[in-house]
Amino acid sequence: MSTNGEYGICYSVLMATRPLRLNEVPVSTLGAFMEAAAAHRTSDLGQLAGFAGFSSSTARKAVPTLETLGILKHEDTGPYTVTVDGVARGISDQAKEQ
Description:
5 strands; alpha+beta; 4 helices; 98 residues
């Protein structure tokens, strides 16, 4: 199933008993949500959107995509967490030296 939305096409894939969603969201937007989740531990989607600098509407597209890709996870009562190493907000000292 696919639907057109503000960012393009949303693909829903049925895997096991839970539908997975991949939304067409700019990579820079996904990166902002990854950084926000790494820097600010929150279980509130609206707060995560604010930390990332985007609206809640954008968060409702970006976060399921990151969860489907296995980059972000959110348990029912816990905060959003990044599942990959090395994600941080800002520029590392190593990058500044280049």
